[in-house]
Amino acid sequence: MEAAPAPVKTTRPKPGERRVQVLQTLAAMLETPKGEKITTAALAARLDVSEAALYRHFASKAQMFEGLIEFIEQTIFGLINQISAQDQDGVSQARAIVLMLLGFAEKNPGMTRVLTGEALVGEHERLQERMNQLLDRIEASLRQVLRLAAAQGTLPETFDANSRANLLVSYVLGRWHRFAKSGFKRSPAEGAEPQVAALLR
């Protein structure tokens, strides 16, 4: 007599895996060029789960966006720390940070809409506040390396690190916006090298 076939086991996601899947799917949905507002119903349908299942991992849609912002923060500031550790020259660090920010957007189009605040319109105001804080921290990092460059003598002592750091962040934001508005067709890093070099004189 033949043995009965073993029951097929459905593999349940490990703790934390479903949470990551939700964030990955949200980021992928943000990559649609038309940029429609994302609902939890559409997100649940894309994941083939119920909305109730989403709320087992995140208390609200705002919390899902916070998860994306945490990923952005950890990645960007991890890379800024790497740049600072690998290169002692202040001007080189500033250039590398700006180009990294443009490259990050190109590799993560959906995240670009979070960085520009476009995806956060109509969401909880604390999300935009957190993005503003992230931009302030980026500006502070650039201010620090520009002051280092002035102390090293690669920039004039009269160089205004505050206004130049602000200008660099404004440049990056403009590039991010253009990338998102082009439906992610125009590379944010296109022609950036000479422009960044001009901003660091």
TrEMBL record:
Gene3D superfamilies: Tetracycline Repressor, domain 2. InterPro entries: Homeodomain-like_sf (IPR009057), HTH_TetR (IPR001647), SlmA-like_C (IPR054580), Tet_transcr_reg_TetR-rel_C_sf (IPR036271). The keyword Nuclease does not apply. Keywords: Coiled coil, DNA-binding, Transcription, Transcription regulation. Pfam families: SlmA-like_C, TetR_N. PROSITE patterns: HTH_TETR_2. Residues 39-58 bind DNA. GO terms for molecular function: DNA binding. The keyword Transcription regulation applies. Residues 16-76 form the HTH tetR-type domain. Residues 117-144 form a coiled coil. PANTHER family: HTH-TYPE TRANSCRIPTIONAL REPRESSOR NEMR (PTHR47506:SF6), TRANSCRIPTIONAL REGULATORY PROTEIN (PTHR47506). This is Dihydroorotate oxidase. The lineage of its organism: Bacteria, Pseudomonadati, Pseudomonadota, Betaproteobacteria, Burkholderiales.
